[in-house]
């Protein structure tokens, strides 16, 4: 429990003046990236369903907190609805070592509470850095064994959302521990939905973001939570993971922030496909290969890629197709692009994509698996129809720290997302300018 308290003590004490300029800049870009993902995700059927549910059970549009899908809501419901909307297009960020998508659980909680408390942009950034740190460190603690069955964004992310909300509410150390306790006891999210491409992944993110807000407000109201929810003998690690627990990973390193270790997603598909996507593009470009020149593609991957992508191999729906390695590589081979518009009902029936899909095979690569999750890599071998073999080892996928997206590439990505959404009211250039000056804002209202 000492390590959890150290993490919370760090979170409570952290000040804006402690943040390096580069960390502030990274946080702003991650927030802008997530906002545009939310704009693109708002029209999706599942987000409409979440909104209908909110209306039916008492979350009527009567609050001042912005939502992507319609009128303002109270803080809990704004966080809930925005959590799902920001994740459904599968282009929000990822923190490699924790395998958590922090943006879509931390930002909706922080944004809602920032609006409710009239916080400034600088205070929002600070709380978001805290939320990222907690979500990512909890994800690292829970580890690979947890991720086999549990969606870490939904579990660790709930505590990150609570930490961000607690920071904005000004909770002290004891009450922040209460908030994490209430968040952790409600953390949930299982991978079983992959087998049938059910909508649970968006529900996970909505629940995590909303529950984080709820937990912080409960703590503010004096409702207590288990302070040893992470490492206790009936806590989250024991209940949902295996192996040897290393609580030391919860303790922040001075001057180092997990938000800086977070990756932008370049392709509109599951992050487990990205190293192989980059490898395919590299080899096809380098050797002038066309789809019909290729007889077989062998992707050496880590075990969780097999676990997550395997159930979706058939690509029977648009959402499931983003989790099918064969389909994603088939899309890339036949267009050199895997953006949102490249995944559609029409594309599911594309004979050329399906033909290439059948050529793709995943295998466990011990070296790739050993590097994971700190590094997401792949070893690819393409066998041409003439028997020639072409090989590459992608060690830093596009969007990872060290192979970052430039601002120009981010603007291009954001433009495509807004165009896909059909939202004619959003000027990407104007929105980007506003969000990249976030620390100067007097409030978090009127973002959209």
UniProtKB/TrEMBL annotation:
<dbReference type="InterPro" id="IPR042183">
    <property type="entry name" value="MmgE/PrpD_sf_1"/>
</dbReference>
<dbReference type="Pfam" id="PF03972">
    <property type="entry name" value="MmgE_PrpD_N"/>
</dbReference>
<dbReference type="GO" id="GO:0016829">
    <property type="term" value="F:lyase activity"/>
</dbReference>
<dbReference type="Pfam" id="PF19305">
    <property type="entry name" value="MmgE_PrpD_C"/>
</dbReference>
<comment type="similarity">
    <text>Belongs to the PrpD family.</text>
</comment>
<dbReference type="InterPro" id="IPR005656">
    <property type="entry name" value="MmgE_PrpD"/>
</dbReference>
<feature type="domain" description="MmgE/PrpD C-terminal">
    <location>
        <begin position="267"/>
        <end position="423"/>
    </location>
</feature>
<feature type="domain" description="MmgE/PrpD N-terminal">
    <location>
        <begin position="5"/>
        <end position="243"/>
    </location>
</feature>
<protein>
    <recommendedName>
        <fullName>MmgE/PrpD family protein</fullName>
    </recommendedName>
</protein>
<dbReference type="InterPro" id="IPR042188">
    <property type="entry name" value="MmgE/PrpD_sf_2"/>
</dbReference>
<dbReference type="InterPro" id="IPR045336">
    <property type="entry name" value="MmgE_PrpD_N"/>
</dbReference>
<dbReference type="InterPro" id="IPR036148">
    <property type="entry name" value="MmgE/PrpD_sf"/>
</dbReference>
<dbReference type="InterPro" id="IPR045337">
    <property type="entry name" value="MmgE_PrpD_C"/>
</dbReference>
């Amino acid at each position: 429990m000492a390590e959890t308290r150290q993490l919370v003590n760090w979170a409570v004490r952290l000040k804006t003046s402690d943040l390096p300029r580069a960390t502030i800049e990274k946080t702003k870009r991650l927030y802008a990236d997530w906002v545009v993902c939310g704009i693109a995700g708002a029209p999706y059927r599942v987000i409409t369903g979440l909104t209908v549910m909110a209306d039916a059970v008492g979350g009527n549009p009567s609050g001042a907190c912005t939502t992507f899908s319609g009128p303002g809501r109270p803080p809990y419901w704004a966080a809930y609805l925005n959590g799902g909307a920001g994740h459904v297009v599968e282009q929000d960020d990822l923190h490699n070592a924790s395998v958590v998508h922090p943006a879509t659980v931390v930002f909706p909680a922080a944004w809602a509470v920032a609006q409710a408390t009239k916080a400034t942009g600088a205070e929002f950034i600070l709380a978001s850095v805290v939320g990222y740190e907690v979500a990512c460190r909890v994800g690292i603690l829970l580890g690979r064994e947890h991720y086999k069955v549990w969606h870490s964004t939904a579990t660790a992310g709930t505590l990150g959302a609570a930490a961000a909300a607690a920071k904005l509410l000004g909770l002290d150390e004891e009450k922040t521990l209460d908030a994490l306790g209430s968040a952790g006891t409600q953390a949930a999210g299982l991978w079983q939905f992959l087998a049938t491409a059910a909508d649970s992944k968006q529900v996970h993110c909505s629940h995590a973001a909303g529950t984080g807000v709820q937990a912080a407000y409960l703590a503010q109201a004096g409702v207590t939570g288990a302070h040893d929810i992470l490492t206790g003998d009936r806590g989250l690690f024991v209940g949902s993971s295996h192996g040897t627990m290393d609580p030391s990973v919860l303790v922040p390193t001075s001057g180092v922030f997990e938000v800086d270790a977070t990756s932008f997603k370049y392709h509109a598909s599951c992050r487990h496909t990205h190293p192989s996507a980059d490898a395919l593009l590299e080899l096809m470009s380098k050797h002038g290969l066309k789809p019909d020149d290729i007889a077989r593609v062998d992707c050496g991957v880590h075990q969780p890629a097999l676990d997550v992508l395997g159930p979706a191999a058939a690509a029977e729906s648009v959402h499931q197709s983003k989790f099918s390695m064969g389909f994603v590589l088939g899309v890339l081979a036949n267009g050199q692009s895997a953006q949102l518009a490249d995944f559609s009902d029409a594309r599911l029936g594309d004979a050329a994509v399906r033909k290439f899909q059948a050529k793709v095979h995943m295998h466990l690569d011990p070296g790739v698996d050993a590097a994971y999750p700190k590094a997401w890599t792949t070893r690819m071998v393409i066998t041409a129809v003439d028997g020639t073999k072409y090989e590459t080892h992608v060690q830093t996928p596009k969007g990872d720290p060290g192979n970052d997206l430039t601002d120009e590439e981010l603007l291009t990505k954001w433009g495509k997302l807004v165009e896909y959404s059909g939202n004619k009211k959003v000027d990407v250039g104007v929105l980007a300018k506003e969000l990249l000056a976030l620390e100067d804002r007097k409030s978090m209202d009127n973002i959209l």
